[in-house]
Design goal:
The complex is a heterotetramer of chains A (about 625), B (about 375), C (about 240) and D (about 110). By secondary structure, chain A is mainly alpha-helical. Helix content of chain A is about 65%, strand content about 0%. Chain B is elongated, with a radius of gyration of 33 Å. In chain B, β1 and β2 form a beta hairpin. In chain B, the strands form two sheets. In chain B, strands 8-5-1-2-3-11 form a six-stranded mixed beta sheet, covered by helices on one side. In chain B, strands 4-10-9-6-7 form a five-stranded mixed beta sheet. Helices cover about 70% and strands about 0% of the residues of chain C. Chain C is built from nine helices and no strands. The radius of gyration of chain D is 21 Å and the shape is flat. By secondary structure, chain D is mainly α. Classes of the chains: A mainly alpha (about 625), B alpha+beta (about 375), C mainly alpha (about 240), D mainly alpha (about 110). The interface between A and B is large, with 130 and 123 residues. Bound molecules: heme-A (2 copies), dinuclear copper ion and copper (II) ion (CU). Copper (II) ion (CU) binds next to α9 of chain A.
């Protein structure tokens, strides 16, 4: 009766006097060291958005350099001091900007900010639990993430600037402090921050998994879970299995940097001076990194997929098409994502034989992705579509995922990757699929669950403005990059002035930069909308989107323990929208079939023969009565 | 004296508005203010429009009408976006698409380009179809109170179809790609075919070093411990094969001859990237890699093709390697066999006089012979 | 109709249909299991890296020549004896830990305490041995980024294996990997011991008695056995293979 | 809600399976295997009865046995639900993938270094 006693104790106690308990909760325990999953979700979200905006500003800074490589901007010197002497960002700092931009966006925005927010908010609410399995570790998870963010940003304060070896920190570049300024303290901080981050995501991950496994409410079997939960669950598993490998890689890197070992280093002469390293292999690091790195990119997209599926079903008032297929494709992606990492290393010196193998596995991943894409389209087909901002962003996510995914097919082909690797084609690919699709998934989630998080509604019109500017902006930014890539323009280049063949892209670069600035400005609409709605937004009703999932059965006013009384029991899958014969066009999961006799279908009772019997009896009696009349 | 104070003032002024960066140029704040103002004006405009819309909405409602149908508006915008987008994509393909690399200048490059065309065709079909369906549906099935959505949870046959269809397409791509890849990466000299020319290319921050074999056609072994100012690559001169090696500063390649690039790096990872030949492989310190290819178009021919008299093939560095990464190039000239031989005979041996001194070779008889045939080479 | 309702609203009570743990396992234990799974990936990656580097090396120090002393007692010619002792200690401490868990199931507080204390002692003994082992190797000249002098190196290899250069190179690689990986494992043992102590104290204070179950001991037990498990692999790949 | 799940959990005395006797037995098996490993390492191999390249696979197999006993009995996964066991075992396949790839790579490195 033990631990559950502990953890149930908390719940019981909230049932009894949770309500009056609220106002005499101290500020610290309510807002700062909160153990309530809803508050932690908000903390993750707000930190995530802050990081996102910072990383976005970084991207604008280096875009300015790419657009006006010759111009000087005294303002930059004022802002960046020694990093931008006489009005121009220095070459090394450009790389720092890119590196930190990438790192923050991938890990801090789209891993912590996305999974962290929505796993914390939705898992307990949608599976019907009082809170996370371990609220305490949940809190720790956030605070580790917060620390990691602080450390990462603090690296802008060190003399030689932040890490600048690219977010993939390939050694030897990242291992030799003398190789470039950013590989000094900057890289050290990067590594420290990363270790904390992994700790955070690990604590989060095992929490999510055990919550989904153990704490589903009565009737919530796996095939009644919303796709968001499926996605977040599998994402958590990916994290648990992938991040530790990065830890191993990072540990070895730290030793190479600070303890004179040579795991990744061999035969190095750094500007004329022999280094005492021998026997290591840089490729080893690349394997360890990408064993995480590739699952990571699916960690980034899968929650977005789940969120979009949910939102598209709700707003086209139509069950998600092929629910089972959607789940199986998610599982397929999860499994496959562990055996394709080599596609980042086709031309890095990996054994060509492996290149061939990885190319096969990589292209297979397109199949589950295809299933998802087509099922989304089928969900819209003959729907009754409501264009809430959330819906628009979900659709944007699909559009971007198709575009970006298809470019992935080029890269996945080892033969083509020879000429595309590390060009702007790759940059275009991953921005479409991650910088746009995944971000849009996150934004969709924010718009959709804002009422649940803050009990207020966001302004729709501003939402529309935000969507169209960002959507068009992102396409304008990233579409042309493909063609730069096809012209062999390499990424991580400080300026395209030194190669005659690249100079003709300058106009395009200027255009891209201004498009980016526009898209960035559009985020102001979002931020204003977000913040103002928290305070002056109009009050939300309990179920503003007329959705079926459990979270909308909780009161608008948050209370620790989520449901005032008993946790509701679940009777049906979450996608009974526009069911023929039902009076409403949605039937929440908590409505028993006996209350919807007119709309029940045989298909609802696949795993309940008795129920099916009853249904048939009921229908036959109906017929009989009609004949009587 | 006066002058002095002036200077001083200038100083303080400078530091005042450049955050302690004496030598930094003046910020022209008016410019900044201008942009900020512009931005605020835009925001203001947006706000005003928003208000107007709200009021218009209200008036409509007051008149008992249904108010603005934002849903329909959005649906229409989706349609507009679809059309505009399709045109944009088309424009981008034609205009920017025409700015991409010229035809492949190597044997395997042609294969890669075929691969690329096939992939492009297949994926672009998918691209246009799916995007049209996506936005088409949005407009077609926009909300209306009269209709109810069509309850359709699943349909196994169609799901099977669109699982298998992509699977087939991808199998085609995989098989085609797999064999292309195998062919390209197959690095054993085919029987009968003359051994390919060995070219040694070594990357370091931030330049490429080239080394060609001499008469013996063999490159001498290297060891990073032997690197010195004069012996940049650490060539080992205990071995005879090293003596006639040549140091060159432009990569000359005979057309239609198989070339084997031996790729190395001294400090960090670099990447030998020759887009025109569709050649790329990383240069990894401690792990010599190589890439075999056959150039097919001479620089001269390419110049006429692109009617750009200044055109040059280039080696880029395509793996982040530090501050100079963006400017680490080497010129490649593809020439006829004759030109190549002529050029080759003009090249200086790697074993420079400075290096001889360093190695105290003056005494040894070996180098004497060396120097003679070097003279021979020179005239 | 009422029957109809009850049956039509039937919700399954199978393990997976919600309202209970599908594995009949309390959440804390599931978390521990998944943490261990994750940690297993870390160690595997480290060991795999070791493997990759070792395979690509031409020669490698012979374990029975590197480890042939019992610090403080025998200085030579006792290959693998000392590590044998270490291994045995760790296995034993694992056994005592299971016994503690087993006693926990019988709510036999006294026994739990004794077995836990035994486990802690075992842990400390292992750490002590590892410290000695490290000290000895360090004394011989092995360390991160340093090896014994060239002429001494011969004795760590099977006769005639490799050249001076390769011997030095691989000896260095060996040292780096050995200290890093055993260090990482030692760190785990150390944290394990700390946790065990905390738990022991809690048992003494009767925390779990009040709770009515010694599940906590069981969870910590899992961690402790995992540390043992890792050692089994470290042992094989550094001392035997 | 989940409290009753725990009730269920605690009524089932699944731990009864790990008796003192069995613990001792497993402990003995583990020590025995270790002993065998030592015999191979200290007697068979030096005496040339078993060549090292054959000894290594034997070591690994024995190690896997030990691993099995520790996980199955000490961590008593053998007595947990199959589901849990599988969810722990199956992911290990990915590790095997990593092993295969890196072994292949390390051989490739040898050929590259020449
Ligand atoms: C959200 C993140 C995300 C996602 C989902 C993907 C998805 C995919 N990625 Fe991407 N990728 C990245 C993020 C992501 N990638 C990042 C960040 C990098 C760069 C890292 C760095 O170097 O900095 C990268 C780099 C990258 C490379 C390495 C390029 C290089 O460095 O040389 C490759 C190569 O194979 C690749 C392939 C793929 C493939 C095949 C998919 C597939 O999953 C795509 C599948 C989807 C579709 C195919 C579209 C929908 C399907 C249909 C419409 C059906 C019909 C389609 C067909 C029949 C073809 N990606
Ligand atoms: C989520 C991932 C993400 C996002 C959103 C972005 C956004 C942008 N990126 Fe980023 N980028 C990366 C991930 C991302 N990037 C990565 C991983 C790299 C590789 C780094 C490396 O090489 O090591 C990279 C590198 C990279 C390069 C290559 C630099 C080089 O190689 O030299 C360029 C060049 O233009 C670029 C530009 C931009 C621009 C203009 C934006 C603009 O911001 C786009 C316009 C704005 C938007 C589309 C809106 C985004 C919205 C928000 C950020 C707010 C979000 C709020 C919530 C989600 C609640 N990025
Ligand atoms: Cu050299 Cu990049
Ligand atoms: Cu990938």
């Amino acid at each position: 009766m033990s631990t559950l006693a502990v953890h149930d104790h908390g719940v019981a106690h909230h049932d009894d006097h949770g309500h009056e308990h609220h106002h005499n909760q101290s500020f610290l325990s309510k807002y700062v060291f909160s153990m309530d999953h809803k508050m932690i979700a908000k903390q993750f979200l707000i930190t995530g958005i802050t990081m996102a905006v910072i990383a976005m500003i970084l991207s604008i800074l280096f875009r300015i350099q790419l657009a006006y490589p010759e111009k000087t901007f005294p303002l930059l010197t004022t802002l960046l001091g020694r990093f931008a002497p006489n009005g121009r960002i220095s070459a090394d700092f450009y790389l720092s900007l890119v590196t930190i931009h990438g790192t923050i966006m991938v890990f801090f925005v789209l891993t912590a900010g996305l999974s962290g927010t929505f796993a914390n908010l939705l898992i307990p609410l949608q599976v019907g639990a009082r809170d996370m399995a371990s609220p305490f570790m949940n809190m720790l998870s956030y605070w580790f993430f917060f620390l990691a963010s602080v450390v990462m940003l603090s690296s802008f304060l060190v003399q030689k600037g932040p890490a600048s070896g690219g977010w993939t920190i390939y050694p030897p570049l990242s291992a030799l402090p003398k190789a470039m300024p950013g590989s000094g303290e900057g890289m050290t901080l990067w590594l420290i921050s990363m270790v904390m981050f992994v700790a955070s995501s690990l604590m989060g991950g095992i929490n999510y998994v055990s919550t989904v496994l153990n704490m589903r409410t009565k009737g919530m079997d796996l095939w009644k879970m919303p796709l968001t939960i499926w996605a977040l669950f599998l994402t958590a598993i990916l994290g648990i299995l992938a991040f530790p490998v990065l830890v191993a890689g990072v540990v070895l890197l730290i030793f190479d940097r600070s303890f004179g070992t040579s795991f990744y280093l061999s035969d190095i002469v750094l500007n004329g001076v022999q280094q005492p390293y021998e026997g290591g292999s840089p490729i080893l690091f690349q394997h360890l990194f990408w064993f995480l790195g590739h699952p990571e990119v699916y960690i980034v997209i899968m929650p977005a997929m789940g969120i979009s599926s949910e939102i598209m079903s709700v707003n086209s008032r139509k069950p998600i098409f092929g629910y089972h297929a959607m789940v199986y494709s998610l599982i397929g992606i999860t499994v496959l994502s562990f055996i394709v990492w080599g596609h980042h290393m086709f031309v890095t010196g990996m054994n060509p034989f492996l290149g061939g193998v990885f190319m096969i596995t990589t292209l297979i991943i397109a199949v589950p992705s295809a299933v998802k894409t087509f099922n989304w389209l089928a969900t819209l087909w003959r729907g009754n579509i409501r264009f809430t901002p959330a819906m628009l962003f979900a659709i944007g996510m699909v559009s971007f995922f198709i575009s970006g995914g298809l470019t992935g097919i080029f890269l996945g082909n080892a033969a083509l990757d020879i000429n595309l690797h590390d060009t702007y084609f790759v940059v275009a690919h991953f921005h479409l699929v991650m910088g746009s699709a995944a971000i849009f998934g996150m934004l969709a989630g924010v718009y959709h669950w804002f009422p649940k998080m803050f009990g207020k509604m966001m302004d729709e019109k501003l939402g529309y403005l935000h969507f169209w500017l960002t959507f068009i902006g992102a396409y304008l930014v990233f579409f042309p990059m493909h063609f730069m890539g096809l012209d062999g323009v390499p990424r991580r280049y400080y300026a395209f002035t030194e190669f005659v063949s690249m100079q003709r892209w300058l106009t395009v670069n200027t255009f891209i930069t201004w498009a980016a600035i526009m898209a960035a400005c559009a985020q102001v609409a979002f931020l204003y909308n977000f913040i103002s709605s928290i305070f002056i937004g109009k009050k939300a009703t309990q179920n503003p989107w007329e959705a079926n999932t459990l979270e909308w059965t909780t009161p608008v006013e948050h209370l620790h323990g989520n449901w005032p009384g008993e946790i509701p029991t679940v009777y049906r899958w979450p996608y009974d929208y526009s069911k023929p014969g039902a009076e409403e066009d949605y039937i929440p999961q908590t409505v028993p079939f006996s209350q919807t006799m007119s709309s029940n279908l045989p298909h609802d009772f696949e795993d309940n023969p008795k129920g099916l019997e009853e249904l048939n009896k009921f229908n036959s009696t109906l017929k009989a009565n009609e004949q009587v009349k | 004296m006066l002058l002095g104070t002036n200077l001083l003032m200038a100083q303080t002024e400078a530091t005042a508005n450049t955050g302690g960066q004496p030598d930094a140029p003046q910020v022209d704040w008016t410019g900044v203010a201008y942009y900020l103002l512009l931005f605020f004006l835009v925001c203001l405009g947006v706000a005003v429009i928003g208000k107007i819309l709200k009021i218009y909405d209200l008036t409509l409602k007051i008149q008992g009408k249904k108010g603005m149908k934002w849903n329909t508006v959005m649906a229409v915008v989706c349609l507009v976006f679809l059309i505009a987008g399709l045109y944009g994509a088309y424009w981008s393909f034609t205009v920017q698409g025409s700015m991409t690399l010229p035809e492949a200048a190597s044997v395997h490059g042609v294969k890669i380009d075929e691969m690329f065309t096939v992939t492009t065709v297949l994926t672009m079909i998918v691209f246009f179809v799916t995007q049209i369906l996506l936005f088409g549906f949005l407009f077609q099935y926009r909300h209306s109170d009269k209709r109810r959505a069509h309850f359709l949870p699943h349909n196994n046959t169609i799901e099977k179809i669109w699982t298998i269809a992509p699977a087939i397409v991808l199998t085609i791509l995989v098989v085609f790609g797999f064999f292309t890849w195998q062919k390209i990466m197959d690095n054993t000299d085919a029987k009968g075919e003359p051994a390919s020319i060995n070219v040694d290319i070594t990357g370091h921050q931030f330049a490429w070093e080239l080394r060609y074999p001499g008469k013996d056609g063999k490159l001498g072994p290297k060891d990073f411990r032997l690197v010195t100012a004069a012996n940049k690559l650490g060539v080992n001169f205990k071995k005879r094969s090293s003596f006639d090696d040549l140091q060159v500063d432009t990569m000359y390649l005979p057309v239609n001859k198989s070339v084997r690039l031996n790729i190395q790096a001294l400090d960090v990872i670099h990447s030998v990237y020759m887009p025109h030949f569709r050649v790329q492989l990383n240069a990894v310190p401690g792990l010599p890699t190589f890439f075999k290819f056959t150039p097919t178009i001479t620089t001269a021919q390419m110049r006429t093709q692109l009617d750009d008299p200044k055109f040059e093939y280039l080696v880029y560095c395509n793996k982040i390697c530090g501050g100079g990464h963006y400017n680490m190039q080497k010129v490649v000239r593809v020439v006829t066999e004759a030109e190549y031989q002529a050029w080759l005979s003009r090249q200086k041996p790697y074993l420079s006089d400075a290096l001889r001194k360093e190695l105290h070779f003056a005494a040894a008889d070996q180098p004497k012979k060396e120097s003679q045939n070097r003279l021979a080479l020179n005239n | 109709m009422s029957t109809a309702v009850s049956q039509i609203d039937e919700i399954k009570t199978t393990p997976w249909s919600g309202g209970r743990s599908p594995f009949n396992v309390e959440y804390g234990k599931i978390m521990m299991w998944f943490f261990l799974l994750s940690d297993a990936f870390t160690f595997s990656s480290l060991l795999i890296s070791y493997g990759a580097l070792r395979f690509s090396a031409s020669v490698w120090p012979a374990a029975d020549k590197v480890f042939q002393s019992v610090p403080g007692m025998i200085d030579h010619g006792a290959p693998l004896v000392f590590v044998g002792i270490m291994t045995f200690i760790l296995i034993l401490s694992s056994v005592t830990m299971v016994l503690a868990v087993e006693a926990g199931h019988r709510n036999a507080k006294k026994e739990v305490i004794w077995w836990m204390i035994a486990t802690v002692i075992g842990g400390f003994m292992f750490l002590g041995c590892q410290a000695l082992e490290w000290a000895h190797l360090h004394h011989e000249g092995f360390w991160w980024g340093s090896t014994p002098a060239l002429h001494e190196l011969k004795e760590f290899f099977t006769e005639g294996a490799g050249t001076d250069a390769t011997r030095h190179l691989t000896a260095q690689e060996f040292a780096n990997l050995f200290f890093t990986i055993t260090g990482f494992h030692g760190f785990h043992v150390f944290t394990g011991v700390i946790i065990n102590i905390i738990i022991t104290v809690n048992v003494l204070l009767g925390t779990y008695e009040k709770r009515g179950s010694y599940l906590m001991v069981e969870k910590v037990g899992l961690y402790w056995h995992f540390v043992d498990l890792v050692w089994v692999f470290v042992f094989t790949f550094f001392y035997l293979v | 809600m989940s409290s009753d799940s725990q009730e269920v959990h605690h009524e089932e005395g699944e731990h009864a399976t790990m008796t003192k006797g069995r613990i001792i037995k497993v402990a003995l098996i583990l020590s025995a295997i270790t002993a065998v490993e030592f015999i191979i390492a200290l007697i068979l191999v030096p005496k040339g009865i078993l060549a090292i390249q054959y000894a290594n696979p034997v070591y690994i197999v024995l190690t896997l046995f030990k691993a099995f006993y520790i996980v199955a009995f000490f961590m008593h996964l053998k007595f947990e639900k199959v589901g849990l066991a599988l969810s722990i075992i199956v992911p290990i396949l990915f590790i095997i993938g990593l092993i295969l790839v890196l072994t292949n790579e390390s051989h490739h490195w040898i050929t590259l270094r020449g």
